[in-house]
Write a structure and sequence with these properties.
single chain, six-stranded mixed sheet, 10 helices, 23% strand, Acyl-protein synthetase LuxE domain-containing protein, ANL_N_sf, LuxE
Length: 378
């Protein structure tokens, strides 16, 4: 079977209403499921172990894998064994073992299309100076790339020039004042810029900046400071999202809505979920989010908090198109956000407590992995 392009040029990512989107997605996911079953033998064993009838009458019926499985097994989907693949790895901050997902050129092209469509909708298409609160080494890696590196690269298409403003000094990242001054000068001349950093790195850098500089001004509405990940560290420091946004925006003289937190996973690279002006995260028409009860895994209705399941039409080279995370989220509405975007809107609530995570995804993984011993462990 063949898999056609899942991104339609004439359709913006958030203009399709949920009912129409679900009809489209269900048809496409049935094809995608068969692609992975046919070309990834270990995944075929996993699907067979779930003993489903294969009808999949709704998106909630689709089989899913816990993200923990990508820490334990190398799952590749390839019609041709000679297909070249690169690897993206998670930061492995909790378990010490990174997730590993394989990406071929066809999947990479779909991911680039997806990221461009999503970011165009949220930050516009202009090229601006790009300030990166990280080191250049983080973004390097042709065959293996980290989550931070992938996030940095996802915004490179919006850069008129780029400035890495941090150094690795004995394993600790610190702001380089000289390179930051160069970046600041470029941003002032343009009147706008974009910046990216892992959340805790952005916070760390701005604590230092606030001691070195007065509050800035003169940056327009096309200035955005974008961040992802790292909330666990800040929560221990009692730094909440609203406080973080307020501090960063006050320093730059911009609106809090121009500080954009986005949610995304290495286990499903290519689809990111940035905050809109109303503080919600939106799902593009080629993906969906399902919220499941932590212990029963049953889908939850609007207004309840549970585990986040992510599904995406993008992955062709690894069966990570439907994954159950250890993250908590709340489905807050459909087709009705004040920002005007259609489809589901949700909010990220943090990592699930270890007991809850153990009660769902890990047990589920053991059940399906235990059904077949032919999987290829790392």
């Amino acid at each position: 079977m063949s898999i056609h392009d899942c991104l339609m040029e004439q359709v913006r990512p958030y203009e399709m209403e949920q009912a129409e989107k679900e009809t489209y997605l269900l048809k496409e996911f049935r094809h995608l499921l068969q692609w992975h079953v046919q070309h990834c033998k270990p995944y075929r064993h996993l699907v067979e172990a779930q003993a489903r009838d294969g009808q999949y009458a709704a998106l909630t019926d689709l089989p899913f894998l816990p993200t923990s499985i990508f820490k334990e097994f190398e799952l590749k989907t390839a019609a041709n064994k000679d297909v070249k693949m690169k690897t993206v790895q998670s930061s492995s901050t909790s378990s010490g073992v990174p997730s590993q997902v394989f990406i071929d050129e066809r999947t990479s092209a779909r991911q680039r299309q997806s990221l461009q469509a999503i970011w165009n909708d949220h930050i516009g298409v202009e090229r601006r100076p790009y300030i990166i609160f990280d080191t250049m080494q983080t973004a390097r890696g042709k065959q293996v790339m980290s989550a931070r590196g992938a996030a940095i690269m996802s915004l490179m298409g919006y850069a008129s020039e780029f400035h890495f403003v941090m150094d690795d000094i004995h394993g600790e990242l610190r702001l380089n004042p000289e390179r930051f001054e160069q970046a600041l000068q470029a941003a002032r001349e343009a009147g706008q810029f974009i910046a990216y950093g892992f959340t805790y790195l952005l916070h760390q850098a701005h604590e230092q900046l606030m001691t070195l500089y007065e509050a800035q001004k003169g940056f327009d509405s096309q200035t955005f400071l974008i961040h992802s990940g790292g909330w666990k560290r800040l929560e221990h420091m009692r730094v909440h999202k609203e406080t973080f946004n307020q501090q960063i925006s006050q320093f730059w003289g911009i609106e809090p809505s121009q500080v954009i937190d986005f949610y995304g996973l290495v286990e499903q690279t290519g689809v990111v979920y940035p905050d809109c002006s109303a503080g919600n995260k939106h799902v593009p028409y080629f993906a969906d989010v399902i919220i499941r009860a932590p212990h029963t895994l049953k889908p939850l209705p609007v207004g309840e908090t549970g585990l986040i399941q992510l599904i995406s039409l993008l992955p062709l080279s690894s069966p990570n198109f439907s994954v159950l995370t250890d993250d908590l989220g709340e489905w807050v509405g459909t087709d009705e956000c004040p920002c005007g975007r259609k489809g589901k809107a949700f909010r990220f609530k943090g990592r699930a407590p270890k007991a809850e995570a153990r009660g769902c995804g890990d047990v589920y993984a053991e059940e399906i992995m235990g059904a077949d011993t032919k999987l290829h462990a790392k």
